[in-house]
Amino acid sequence: MSSAPPAPVIDARGVTKSFGTNTVLRGIDLEVHPGQVVCLLGPSGSGKSTFLRCVNHLERIDGGRLLVDGQDVGYELRHGKLYELTERRIARRRAEIGMVFQRFNLFPHRTALENVVEGPVVVRRRSRAQVLERGRELLDRVGLADRASAYPSQLSGGQQQRVAIARALAMEPRLLLFDEPTSALDPELVGEVLDVMRDLARDGMTMLVVTHEVGFAREVADVAAFMADGVIVETGPPRQVLDDPQHERTQSFLARVL
Ligand code: ADP
Ligand code: MG
């Protein structure tokens, strides 16, 4: 008996999205499979953030099909028909996806540990006592066990971003999305954040990472995808896409960032 391969965590087929007359996504095809790390590269304005926001239910797609864990984003299938999800059910599905932004967006008046446990307490209605231990474990995992009671202003940018990663992990997501997680950091702080991401990848976390860190993509990604003007123009193993790009847009982009 042959068993079907596991369904992709993200399955985008011909996804389109416009803002008014500005067509930002022109037919995105992308699959992210369980345990895979996919790095999405491309020039500013090509639609990378918009695509991540669609995956995370922050934007609605106009056309094509976008499935996360086999379910249409924003819709549910009942008796063979798609129905729009209520806000409540969207919130429930969003809780399965962790997102890490360029700006860390920590609560400034909460400690690192309080920031990490906020999601489980508010969204999952867990008691604080229950989640504190897990929160400490997560801070330990990102190398910040000793900074649990520090406030964001007392932490470096790299430390704050690591708290943001621990906060995303606290929800036990099926999928982690990263939107240029190191772009706002001073160069000397980039490595510590990439190290944490590399550890997560090694542990089998499914990750879609928008980044300009070509070295990270080459080393960690299973698939590199290059996006320009709302389409993925080139995709494949990182060594192929990054070291031997076939498309002119990929070549000129890499020539600029390397
Ligand atoms: P990238 O992340 O690759 O830099 P974005 O997805 O942020 O690209 O943006 C792609 C295009 O979509 C840009 O032209 C941007 O101005 C436009 N855009 C993004 N979000 C919105 C929005 N909420 N409303 C209107 N236009 C938007
Ligand atoms: Mg962006």
Automatic annotation (TrEMBL):
Keyword Nucleotide-binding recorded: yes
Pfam families in alphabetical order: ABC_tran
Coiled coil regions, renumbered to chain: none
Gene3D superfamilies: P-loop containing nucleotide triphosphate hydrolases
Location(s), subcellular: Cell membrane
Xref: InterPro entries: AAA+_ATPase, ABC_ATPase_HisP-typ, ABC_transporter-like_ATP-bd, ABC_transporter-like_CS, MetN_ABC_transporter-like, P-loop_NTPase
Membrane topology: Peripheral membrane protein
Keyword terms: ATP-binding, Cell membrane, Membrane, Nucleotide-binding, Transport
GO molecular function: ATP binding
Keyword Membrane annotated: yes
Domain of life: Bacteria
ABC transporter domain boundaries: 10-254
Primary site of residence: membrane
Protein name in the entry: Amino acid ABC transporter ATP-binding protein (PAAT family)
